[in-house]
Design goal:
Blueprint lengths: L3 E3 L4 H7 L4 H6 L14 E6 L2 E6 L7 E3 L10 H4 L4 E5 L2 H9 L5 E3 L7 H7 L5 E4 L8 H15 L3 E4 L8 H6 L4 H9 L4
Parallel strand pairs: 5-6, 5-7, 7-8
Antiparallel strand pairs: 1-2, 2-3, 3-4
C-alpha cells in the first residue's frame, strides 16, 4: 500500500544539502514556517498529486497534506476495473478493508469529493458503496446521502452502507468486526 513513516528531523537538512533553499521547502509544504520538517512522526501515504501524513503524536494536527488539491481517489487505477467499488473517507478505513480482503476499496480523504474524484467515480458504469463514517453529528451519513443522489443522477448505482453509530470502517474492525460481518453490511446497504 506504499505506506511510509516520516520520523522528522532530517528532511530539511538533506534537501538543503542537495541545494534546495529553505523558502522553496516551505512553499512546497515540506518545512514549517519556523523551519521544522512538516511531516514529523507521521505515517505517510503517497497520493495522486499530493502527500498525506497522519500524525502519531496527540500534540500535532492529525492530518497534513501538501499545499494544493488533495488529488484523486486513492489507488484508483487498481480499483477502477471493479464493477463494484467501496468508497471510504479515510486512509485507515481503506487500509483495514484492504487488509480484510476488500480490494475494490478506494478513499476520498474526507466525505466531500473534489471535481477530479467525482469524474473518476463517474468514468464508467459501476455500483458505488458509500461506507462513510457514522458520525454521531450526522455529517458522514448526510454527505453519503448527498453524494448518492449526485451519482445516481449520473447513472451510477449507489448503496449507502450503515455502520453502527459512531463507527467508521476502521473502528468497526478494531472493535472486533470481521470481513464476513462487513460483507453483511454491504449486502444490507440501501440506495
Amino acid at each position: 500500500m506504499r505506506i511510509g513513516y516520516a520520523p522528522g528531523g532530517g528532511l530539511r537538512g538533506w534537501l538543503m544539502q542537495l541545494g534546495h533553499p529553505l523558502q522553496a521547502l516551505h512553499q512546497a509544504g515540506l518545512v514549517t514556517a519556523v523551519g521544522y520538517d512538516a511531516y514529523r512522526h507521521r505515517l505517510v501515504f503517497p497520493l495522486e498529486g499530493n502527500l498525506y501524513g497522519r500524525s502519531l503524536s496527540a500534540s500535532a494536527p492529525p492530518h497534513r497534506f501538501l499545499p494544493g488539491s488533495k488529488g484523486g481517489l486513492y489507488a484508483w487505477e487498481q480499483v477502477r476495473r471493479y464493477p463494484e467499488v467501496i468508497l471510504v473517507e479515510g486512509l485507515f478505513d481503506y487500509a483495514v478493508l484492504w487488509q480484510a480482503g476488500f480490494y475494490n476499496v478506494t478513499c476520498a480523504m474526507g466525505n466531500h469529493l473534489n471535481a477530479h474524484q467525482y469524474r473518476q467515480l463517474c468514468d464508467g458504469w459501476r455500483t458505488v458503496y458509500l461506507a462513510f463514517d457514522a458520525d454521531t453529528n450526522g455529517s458522514g451519513p448526510r454527505a453519503a446521502q448527498w453524494l448518492a443522489h449526485r451519482l445516481r443522477e449520473r447513472g451510477l448505482n449507489t448503496r449507502r452502507v450503515s455502520l453502527p453509530e459512531g463507527y467508521d470502517p476502521n473502528s468497526f474492525f478494531v472493535q472486533g468486526g470481521n470481513a464476513r460481518q462487513f460483507q453483511s453490511l454491504l449486502e444490507a446497504a440501501q440506495p
